[in-house]
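seq:
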Amino acid sequence: MTEEKKNTVDERDPQHRKHHLMHEAEGVASGAVAGAVLGAVGGPPGIVAGAVIGAAMGAVTAQALENEAERQAERANELDETIGVTSGELGAPNLKHPPEARSSRPPPQATSASTEAPEAEEDPFKT
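struct:
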C-alpha cells in the first residue's frame, strides 16, 4: 500500500459506512425536528411539510459537514507528511542558519548621566 493510499479513507470499509450513516441519520432527525417546529406555524400540514423539508436539508448539511471534516483530515495528513511527523523525520537536520546580522551602529552605552534621576523642575504653583 502506498503512502497516499494509507492516509485516505476507504469508503467501502463497513466501519466508515456505519459512521457515515449514523451522521446522516443525525442530520435527518435534527432537520426534521427543526422543520416541524418551524412548520408548526402552518398547523398540521405545515408540521409535516416542515419535517420533510427539514429532513432533506439535514441530510444535505450532514453530508457537507462530513465531507469538510474528511477534507480537513486529509489536509492535516498531507501537512504531517510534509513536515516529517509521520515519516519520523521531524525537523530539518541539514538546515543552514543565516549569518548573524551585524548593526553598523554601536550598542548604546550606559553612562552615569543616564542612570541618574532627572532633576525635577520648579513647581510654578509653589508659593
